Amino acid sequence: MANKKKVVVTGFEPFGDHAVNASWVAVQELQRLGLGEDVDLHVCEVPVEYKAVENMLPSLWKELQPQLVVHVGVSGIATTVTLEQCGHNRGYKRLDNCSFCPTSQCCMENGPDCIKSVLDMDVVCKHVNDSDLGVALSVSEDAGRYLCDYTYYTSLYLGHRRCAFIHVPPLGKPYSSQDLGRALKAVILEMLDVLTQNCTEEKEHKHEEQCHHKHQQQQRC
């Protein structure tokens, strides 16, 4: 199908107390489920390393040119599947898996302090929570100032905000890998619907502006 939407979904490798990273397990479950025939799904595992993220994300966006990138990470304190609305540029003091952190403690030297996704996470959250998914969703504006936040901000910057970040709880607290995979599928399909709707509204708005401009020109003639 020529008009397939290309979506990239990433999870993280193990780190710290997370000998098994629920995010990558959930992404692999999503890959098994798929996103339907209309979506070309690509998945990859991201190292918990600042420099690896810096090197990996630009090529991901440039080579694949996806309509949407969704990064998934694990949060030890989360009890819901959490949709992150924004990424932050500064405050990165924690060492990564290579015992490194940026000297500047920021993602982009001249970047804005915060970048919001083009997706309204409250809308996505409400629609999915209103379904019979059986997995609770919530929205957050603080992705934690570690590799999750760092990856999200960098991807929002590179992808002109066509990006999302989802935090999942550790496996079994309370959801299984199958639950998390189903949740990711429902959320990402909803995100694609919202993006399509946003695109349609933008086109209609531009068309209205053009029509108004032509009408003004006719009035001047």
From TrEMBL:
Gene Ontology process terms (BP): proteolysis
Q: Which UniProt keywords apply?
A: Cytoplasm, Hydrolase, Protease, Thiol protease
Which Gene3D superfamilies does this one have?
Peptidase C15, pyroglutamyl peptidase I-like
What cellular component terms from Gene Ontology apply here?
cytosol
Catalysis: reaction(s): Release of an N-terminal pyroglutamyl group from a polypeptide, the second amino acid generally not being Pro
Gene Ontology molecular-function annotations: pyroglutamyl-peptidase activity
| Highest taxon, organism lineage | Eukaryota
Q: What class of enzyme is it?
A: hydrolase
Coiled-coil spans are none
Subcellular location per UniProt equals: Cytoplasm
Q: Does the keyword Hydrolase apply?
A: yes
Q: What is its EC number?
A: 3.4.19.3
Q: InterPro entries from the xrefs? A: Peptidase_C15, Peptidase_C15-like, Peptidase_C15-like_sf
| UniProt keyword Phosphoprotein, yes or no | no
The UniProt similarity line reads: Belongs to the peptidase C15 family.
Indicate the quaternary assembly: Monomer.
Q: What does this protein do?
A: Removes 5-oxoproline from various penultimate amino acid residues except L-proline.
Task: Kindly provide the name given to this protein in its UniProt entry.
Answer: Pyroglutamyl-peptidase 1
This chain's source organism reads Cynoglossus semilaevis
